[in-house]
Structure formats: structure tokens, C-alpha cells
Amino acid sequence: MPARRAHIAGYITAVAVCFALGMLAGWNRLAGRVDNQAYDLLSKPVASEGEAIVVAIDEPTLRAFGERPQIRNIVSMTLEKISAARPTAVALDVILGGYSDQAQDARLEAALKTTPNLILGCLVDSDGKWEDPAPRFRSAAAAIGHVHYEADQSDGVTRQLALETVYANERRWAMALETFRVSRNAEILESPDDLEVAHTRIPAARQDSTRPMFIRYAQSIPVISAAKLDQHLGELEGKTVFLGITALSMANDRLKIPTGATIPGVTVHAHAYETLRRGAFLTDASSTVILSICLALAAATGLLFAFFSGWTAYISVLPLLALPLYLPGLFLEQDTVFPIVAPTAVAWLCFAGSATYQHFIVRGTLRRTESDKARYQEAIHWAAHEMRTPLTAIQGSSELMSRYKLPEEKRGELSAMINSESKRLSRIIQTFLDVERLAEGQMELKKEVFPASAVVDTCMARVAPIAERKNIALTLDTPVDGTLTGDRELMEYALYNLLTNAVKYSPPETHVRVLSATKGHELSLSVQDEGIGMDAKELKSIFKKFYRTKRAELSGEAGTGIGLSIVQQIVTHHGGRIGVTSTPGKGSCFTMVLTVQNAEALSR
After folding, report:
1. Over 90: is that where the pLDDT of 420 sits?
2. Region 30-44: what's the mean pLDDT?
3. Average pLDDT for residues 542-569, to the nearest whole number?
4. What is the pLDDT of residues 237-249, one digit of tens each?
């Protein structure tokens, strides 16, 4: 369970980091451009039938008025014809500032006054001030509206229109909005979140003194050349007319729209008007919705990899990776603009993070499995090595007793040996199990209190017969003081192993010494021999499992190389440390440093 909780916590951490990176990837200028391009691909033009008609002052119109056409004369003549056709409203996308030709201005003023529901254009000049129509012209208009657009700064595509624009503390509504209001003979009711005109609610919240509205472009807006207006006057009755300059030689407002086409500004106003007329508005998905969906994608991806692995997880996550590509289209069907970058980045980054984390978990599990396998093999080798001696003694003694008729006294000795070696074998098995449980962290050390001298005396007594057979002197050079706390059997095993190694790898007629020194609460127990010794390179690996020096292998002595690693483990688990010094051909000295209590501390 703790391992499972650790894995889940790891997945949560990996997914949280990837989620944060995905959200950061989705909220920057480059991501905005990608989101806009996705919107352009998904947005489809709506039906063309509507109220708006564009009357264009195009190249044929300019040619019809001679080499140096006068725009105001063209506007005057065109308005006179439009007025006769009885349209619902007329929006003039031409800025009518001051002028010097009185005759032209007088004719224009007269034409403006006869035009029903006239909306004139205004804009902000280079000085940051509103350039409104001249007073004589403005008095003839039902309203004025600004002709600014909301072209995206990153790619120049006009997707939105600023319904409200404020400069120099003066506000102007957009020409399309004013035209819609005048055609409906209504007022504009406003709140911070929306506008309402003739019971049409426009979801355009105020943002930095502006109210952006998505323009839903129609398949086409009817366009009539002013030069051929006489042939189409009947088409203007009851319609809303947008009159403006479309000739490339004079117009400077050719605008790119989401479909990829480039159209004149006056046509954009007509499309914006039709958007208002239809009342089917697009809105941006709220940050809460975007965040919730991204969180759901991240959580789902993390859970799949937390509970599944391999191809099952990879196949299961495919729908989550594809979903962000479909979400913008699904939302657009509900009149909502949803980003594509943020959820896609979150889904793919969380997929990569979860898959990578799972990969390392699998590798870690594999390493632990291989380590466990190796450890059990080591343990079996160690047990076989340690059990060989008592089993040989038991086998040999029982064979003698069964094969030969021995005196009662000899049979008693052999029986005693079998009993002694059987008990020794039992202790070895118990020590083996204890060491295994100790290695896995499943065993709590015994908390016995015992004299350190008793451990030394017991081990030296057990090793003495082995030393005598090789004629090796075994001595305790200094008395052992202090009391140890822990597992006496394990401590005996550790010291016994050091002593048997010293005797095993020392030539006959040498000396093995046990030295002790107490400093404060630390007892140093050293086993010093005059054996084969080791060089500096071998000392670095001497406590590794299965490691044996070349001299040890050449000595002919049997061994597995596991004993010293177990000694180190026992000493470490008792809160001590072990070290070794050695010189090739002169011997080695292994020192265990253990925490002890002196007699005075115990008496207190």
C-alpha cells in the first residue's frame, strides 16, 4: 500500500507539472495565432439572405465621372438615387469633413437631408481625436458611428468588431450597431456584460473601453456598383444600404477575413450588421470552462496510466489525445469559441509525463525484481556455505555410528557432536532468516542488553579449535569493557565471521589478535591477522556481496564472498560502522565501532 500510494503521488506530481506547462503553452501570443487559425478553419459562412446591400463606389464608377472624379459629387448623386428607392436605412462609410467647394457641399447637404435614417461615419485621426462629419452634414444624420475594426494584431485578420470605442473621453458606437439601432427605431441599453437593442441581447462585455463582437460572415453580401445603380434600384426598397468606396485606387481599408478573402471595409460593416440582425452571436469560452476541461483531460490521462500499463494504457489514452482537436468544432456548434492549443498541450504533455513516469516505475520495478532475485541467490549461497560444515560433521558422525561397532564411550562422543552440530545448524538457519528479514526491513532488532566481553569470549572459544589445527595463536590483547544493546546472536555472527576469516587466510605459525578500545560511548573491536592482506583497490570492494580478492581465490580456501557484506549489514543496523586497513602480504585489521554503555551508566 505505501508503494502504491507513492506511485499515485508520483503520477499526481507528474500530471500537475505537465498541466501547468500545458496551460502556459496555451496562453501566449503564438498559441493565440494557432487558436485563431483553428477558428478560421472551423467557422463556416452563414446563409446569404438578409437586409444589407452594399452600394460600391468602384473603379467603373470613378471612370464614369471622368479623369478627376469628385467623391462628394459621386456620393451626392448616388444618395439621390438611393433615397428614391425608399431603403430602411443608409450607412455612409465616407468621412465628410470640412470642404471648400460650396456648390458640391450644398448639393451633398441636400442629398443627405433627403436620405432616410442616415448614419454617417467617423474615426480617430492621427492626433488621437475624433474626426466627425462637418456640422452641416452631421445635422442631416440620424446617428454617427465609428468605422474602426478589430483586426488581429498577430495576423491582420478581422474576426471581431469593436461595438464601442472610447478616445479622449468620448465614446462612439460602431457604424453597424448604430445602423441596426436606427433601422429598428430603438435605443441601446447597456450593462458591463452586454448590450440590448430592440429586444436583441448582444453578448459584448466591456474590455478596456471597448466591446468586441465576433462577426459571423455571410456567404456573400449583395454588392451593386454605383455606376449601375439605375438598373437595381428596385432591389433597395426595404433594405439597409451601406455606401462606401471599394475602388483599389482610392480605398485604403481592404481587410482580410477568416475565409481568407480580402474585402472592403464597407462590406465588413455590412457583415457586422447582418450578425446583429440575425442575433446569433459567438462568445469566447469562459476561463472556468477551459480550465475545467483541461483539468479533466489531465486527470483522466494520469488515471489511465496510474491504473493501466503498456499498450492498454496507450490505446486507452488515444481518445483523450484526439478530443482536444474536436472540442473547438463541438463548441462552435453551440456558438462558443473554444481554444485548441491549451487542451491539446495539456493532453499531450500529461500523456508524455505519465508515460515517462510509468516507464521509470516499470524500470524501477524491474531493477528491484532483479535485485531481489540476486539477493535471494546470494542468501542461498551463503546458507549453503555456512551449513556445509555442521552438515559434514553430522553426516560423518552418523555414518561412523551406523557402519562400525564403536565403543560406548566413542558413540557417546559422536552423539554429543551430532547434537552440538544440529543445534549449530539450527542457529545458522535462524541467523539466515534473521539476516533476510533484516535486509528487507521487516525485522526489528532485539533489544537485549549484554556484555561485550561475553560476545568476544564466546566467539574466540568457537574459533579456538580451528586456529589450533593451523597452529595459529589467538589472543585477546586488551580487556573488553562496556555493554551492548541489540541482537546478541547477530553480533556473535559478525565477530565470528571476522575471526574465522582471519584464521582462514592466515598461514600457519602466525598470530590473530583481538584488540579493544573504549572512548566515551564507543567500543572499537579489532581483529588483526598476519595473513595475505589486500591492496587499496581491493579494499574499496571488500564489503560488496560475492566479492573475493584474487589472493583469496588463489589461497584455495572455499568462500562465497558474502560474509563480510552481512557483517557490515549487521553492524550498520546496530548503529555502528566497520572499517578495514590492510597491507598485501602482511595482514589485515577489521575494526567494528559500536555504541556501548559503561558500568556507571547502567548503575544509574
Report:
1. no
2. 90
3. 68
4. 999 999 999 988 7
Q: Are strands 118-124 and 130-131 parallel, antiparallel or unpaired?
A: antiparallel
Q: Which residues contact 540 (CB under 8 A, 6 or more apart)?
A: none
The per-residue pLDDT for 600 is 47
Mean pLDDT, the chain, whole residue set: 84
Task: Tell me the sheet residues that pair with 91.
Answer: 119, 242
Q: How far apart are CA 209 and CA 190, in angstroms?
A: 13
| Predicted TM-score (pTM) of this structure | 0.64
Measured N-to-C along each axis, helices 71-84 and 102-113 cross at an angle, to the nearest 10 degrees, of 20
Nearest to 324 by CA among 357, 301, 358: 301
CB atoms within 10 A of CB 250: 13
Residue 59 in contact with residue 213, Cβ under 8 Å?
no
- Return phi, psi of residue 90, to 5°: -130, 125
pLDDT, position 174: 95
Residue 180 is which amino acid? F
Q: For residue 462, give the C-alpha cell.
A: 568457537
33: its cell numbers: 495565432
**Start-to-end Cα distance in the chain:** 44
Q: Please report where in the chains the cell 506530481 appears, as a residue.
A: 13
Helical segments of 505-562, H only? 536-539, 550-554
pLDDT bracket for residue 284 (50, 70, 90):
very high
Query: How many angstroms separate the CA atoms of 43 and 450, rounded?
Result: 86
Distance in angstroms (rounded) separating the CA atoms of residues 202 and 163: 10
Q: What would the mean pLDDT of 468-496 be, rounded to a whole number?
A: 88
What's the mean pLDDT in 302-311? 81
Q: Please tell me the distance from the alpha carbon of residue 108 to that of residue 507, in angstroms, as a whole number.
A: 127
The CA distances from residue 53 to 381, 451, 452, 505, 537, in Å, are 96, 109, 108, 109, 94
Tell me the C-alpha distance between 397 and 416, whole Å.
10
Contact 242, 53 (CB under 8 A): yes
Domains along the sequence of the chain with CATH: 2-40+285-364 (no CATH), 47-279 (no CATH), 444-603 (3.30.565.10)
Residue at 352: amino acid letter: A
